[in-house]
Write a structure and sequence with these properties.
Blueprint lengths: L2 H11 L4 H17 L14 H10 L13 E4 L7 H7 L4 E5 L2 H14 L4 E5 L12 E4 L5 H8 L8 E6 L3 H8 L3 E9 L7 E10 L7
Parallel strand pairs: 1-2, 1-4, 2-3, 4-5
Antiparallel strand pairs: 5-7, 6-7
Helix pairs in contact: 1-3, 2-4
The structure holds S-adenosylmethionine.
GO cellular component, one term: cytosol
Protein name: Ribosomal RNA small subunit methyltransferase G
Keywords: Cytoplasm, Methyltransferase, rRNA processing, S-adenosyl-L-methionine, Transferase
Length: 213
């Protein structure tokens, strides 16, 4: 997907007002400027930021159409991917969780600059962040599936929709996790990379392993 195609994809899939484009442009500018201070995205993706990061994040939103009321919780938000992008495109309350202090400061600054009053950041580890009932949980490049699920089950109910962008190994990761995790998950193709996929579904508490007796 070229940068031009990425912008066209956003126009086709969201009613992007001039104000929303402005917020997206300002976020991209802030992200690229902050690269002078900290490594937020791979250097090789700098010239493809709209396709590789903005659309890659935005594509999660249409997968959550059946989500009920309640916050979206984004685990390991880093530079705000997908958390800030989703907060620009949606009015759903957004809680980003990020443990690295410099990244938390950047996220707080972006929220203030863009006036995203429905978004906030918890600066700390996912495992100890206070529980809340999430309507949606996302996690992009945060952790392997079993760790990802176990670290955030205190945010999940039977209704929570998990949207988890994964690389080429999505099917294998899902298959491996099924050994110890119940849940109803399926895999959606990524629109930005034909080889990548997004795991979507509901997680249920881990299966209890029986001892050998
Ligand atoms: C590889 S980065 C990905 C960031 C962003 N989601 C993206 O796609 O660009 C993973 C992020 O998760 C954060 N992280 C890792 N483990 C965490 C934990 N247990 N609790 C909170 N944040 C965590 C790291 O500090 C880092 O910013």
């Amino acid at each position: 997907m070229s940068e031009e195609e990425a912008r066209a994809w956003l126009s086709d899939h969201f009613s992007v007002s001039r104000g929303t484009w402005d917020l997206l442009e300002r976020y991209v500018a802030a992200l690229l400027a902050e690269m002078a201070n900290q490594n937020l995205i791979a250097e090789s993706t700098r010239a493809h930021v709209w396709a590789r990061h903005i659309v890659d994040s935005a594509q999660l939103l249409p997968l959550t159409g059946s989500a009920g009321q309640g916050p979206w919780v984004d685990l390991g938000s880093g530079a705000g991917l997908p958390g800030i992008v989703v907060a620009i495109l949606s009015e759903r309350p957004m809680l980003m969780i990020e443990s690295r202090r410099k990244r938390v400061e950047f996220l707080d600054a972006v929220i203030a600059d863009l006036n995203l009053s429905h978004a906030r950041v918890y600066g700390g580890r996912v495992e100890v962040a206070p529980a809340t009932h999430a309507a949606v949980i996302s996690a992009r490049a945060y952790a392997p599936l079993p760790k990802l699920l176990s670290s955030a089950m205190h945010f999940s109910t039977d209704e929570t929709i998990w949207v988890l962008p994964k690389g080429r190994n999505a099917e294998n990761e899902l298959e491996a996790a099924r050994a110890s995790w119940q849940g109803v998950f399926h895999v959606e193709r990524s629109v930005t990379d034909a080889d990548s996929a997004i795991i979507v579904g509901h997680a249920v508490k881990p299966k209890v392993r029986k001892g050998r007796g």
